[in-house]
Amino acid sequence: MSAGCTQPARITLSQCGSRTALPNSRSCTVNSFTATLARNDQLAAEVAAHPELFRILTGERPTGALHLGHYFGTIAERVRLHRHGVDTFVILADYQVITDRDGIGQVRDHVHNAVLDYVAAGIDPEQATIFTHSAVPALNQLMLPFLSLVTEAELHRNPTVKAEAAASGRALSGLLLTYPVHQAADILSAGANLVPVGKDNLPHIELARVIARRFNDRYGEVFPEPRALLTTAPEVPGLDGRKMSKSYGNAIGLSMTADETAALIRRAPTDSQRHITFDPQQRPGVSALLTTAALTTGRDEHDIAAEIGDGGASALKRFTTDAVNERFAEHRRIRGELALDADFASRVLREGNRRVNEIAEHTLEQVRYAMGTVY
Ligand code: TRP
């Protein structure tokens, strides 16, 4: 298995910011969202020109079936980078499932289903490394030295941790508080230097950079500072206009059949106005259907609204159902075929876990040498 077993070409500190200006280490620091945006186009161009210099790591918490929100939010971009030749690591962060809940649930099913969706979406498991968080001891061991590099105050300041803690309606667990640190361990243990993320995840990547930098300053150069590649994908609303989430019952699953999709869309809330217009504030239901139709056809919401015009909600729902079912027909067909082989997902994960363990053990060895804990 080729791609997974070697470290990627190291992006040295002097290379990691702008290549033309300020070739010193501090030019790598991206302190604000504005700075990241300004750098993002240049980074995207670098990746396009030299995919072989990059290793990406992204993934999901396996809390349920993957849906269109995951697909358009992150999976499509991951597939694009993977096809372009970027070394691709996908983590199924099973330990992260229990950051904000008591039980781990049907985690094995969710993990296996996610593997089928990744492969059906175009991630080639021969080239990419799909793995599970819990199966990589060396990754998890990095947590201890990494925890020493951050303060409690820094962890409490993280806006995503705060938002997720508030949304969970529960006391903040130690695992949720330290979530950006284990995410840093995921990224850095695998030697990834690029993390495609949405805006919400930028503080995590910033902390991963801080951890890499502090470790390198304290013990010697071991980690590349990973860079965030901002995904500009639009947020996919759930069918009721709220955030798409399985727990709201407003999510179109990638693995749903055409009939299940039709039934779900039929039940979606709309309004009594017959003429179809795109207006997310006043008409969340109608607009969510239009956005779903727009994303799946690659067209514009207003265009589709104008085309449906006085056809009303029923015509809009028919249009959206056909658009989703057509867009994902091939995905669902491949997925169904893969699912016939009950051992397929396990084989992919065994190989992915084997590869990532090899890399993470190598990383941990470098950490031990740097820290002088080799006995
Ligand atoms: N926290 C991410 C999510 O909820 C999943 C994840 C785990 C991740 N480790 C990561 C994403 C490292 C990017 C990099 O979707």
TrEMBL record:
Its EC number is 6.1.1.2. Pfam families: tRNA-synt_1b. The keyword Ion transport does not apply. InterPro entries: aa-tRNA-synth_I_CS, aa-tRNA-synth_Ic, Rossmann-like_a/b/a_fold, Trp-tRNA-ligase, Trp-tRNA_synthetase. The keyword Ligase applies. One of its GO terms (molecular function) is tryptophan-tRNA ligase activity. Gene3D superfamilies: HUPs, Tyrosyl-Transfer RNA Synthetase. CDD domains: TrpRS_core. PROSITE patterns: AA_TRNA_LIGASE_I. Transmembrane segments: none annotated. Keywords: Aminoacyl-tRNA synthetase, ATP-binding, Ligase, Nucleotide-binding, Protein biosynthesis. PANTHER family: TRYPTOPHAN--TRNA LIGASE, MITOCHONDRIAL. Belongs to the class-I aminoacyl-tRNA synthetase family. This is Tryptophan--tRNA ligase. It comes from Nocardia acididurans. The gene is trpS.
